[in-house]
Amino acid sequence: MSALFSSNRNAPVTFGIIAITIVVFAGWYLLPAQFMVENFLVSRAHLADGRYWVLITSVFSHYLPIHIMINMFVLWSFGSVLEQLLGFGRFLRFYLVAGIIASLAHVLTSTWLLGRPPDSAALGASGAVAGLLLLFSLTFPKHRILIFGVLPAPALVAALAFIAIDIWGLFAQADGGGLPIGHGAHLGGALAGIVYYFMLRRRPPQ
């Protein structure tokens, strides 16, 4: 999907996040696999071992080229707009917090809903990106975006559709089916975006 805003944006934080994510992606092919597994995947087992940093490092971690390409495209499309709206510092804090919440949501849903083993791991920016999508869609609900770069739809309609898909996918996984997608992380990030939107609305005028 893509936002239909001008690509001429001053978004150094978004660019920096993309650059770091690309470096971590390269690490999966250049560094020892055990190091990457221990430090760039989030799981209940890693948290139990005290590797709390994986809550954020896993957000910058991608192994498959298609995974990083999609996430970074959506990150640039919406993140560069929100960075200008929020300012550099607030945007960075929101992205990191949304990513941490998404990581925690993966651990909680994989443990309590899906009943998966402690070493069931996840990686990727999808949860944090879901937070950006919800924040963007609530801020600009009627702005038309292109779903998968093809289908035009109001931003809020598209965001709600993706939430519905993730809820369906999560319960499908609970029944033993579904795809190997981190629906729990997506929903956690989306919740962060919703909460942050209403927090911004309650801020007093400057």
Strand composition percent: under 5%
CATH topology tier name = Rhomboid-like fold
What is the strand arrangement across the widest sheet? 1-2-3
Structural class designation: mainly alpha
Would you identify the regions where 5 or more consecutive residues have pLDDT less than 50?
A: 1-7
CATH top level class name: Mainly Alpha
Shape: globular
Give the second-level CATH assignment, the architecture: Up-down Bundle
Mean pLDDT: 91
Rounded to an integer, what's the Rg over CA atoms?
A: 17 Å
Main beta sheet: strand number and arrangement?
3 strands, antiparallel
Protein model, in words:
The protein has helices at residues 12-30, 33-40, 44-48, 54-57, 65-86, 88-113, 126-139, 155-174, 183-201, and strands at 2-3, 144-147, 151-154. By secondary structure, the chain is mostly helical. It has a single domain (2-201), classed as Rhomboid-like fold (Up-down Bundle), CATH 1.20.1540. Strands 1-2-3 form a 3-stranded antiparallel sheet. Helix 6 (88-113) packs across helix 7 (126-139), helix 6 crosses helix 9 and helix 8 (155-174) packs antiparallel against helix 9. The radius of gyration is 17 Å and the shape is globular.
Topology:
Blueprint: E1 2-3, H1 12-30, H2 33-40, H3 44-48, H4 54-57, H5 65-86, H6 88-113, H7 126-139, E2 144-147, E3 151-154, H8 155-174, H9 183-201
Antiparallel strand pairs: 1-2, 2-3
Helix pairs in contact: 1-5, 5-6, 5-7, 6-7, 6-9, 7-8, 7-9, 8-9
How would you summarize this macromolecular structure in one to three sentences?
This protein is mostly helical. The protein is 67% helix and 5% strand.
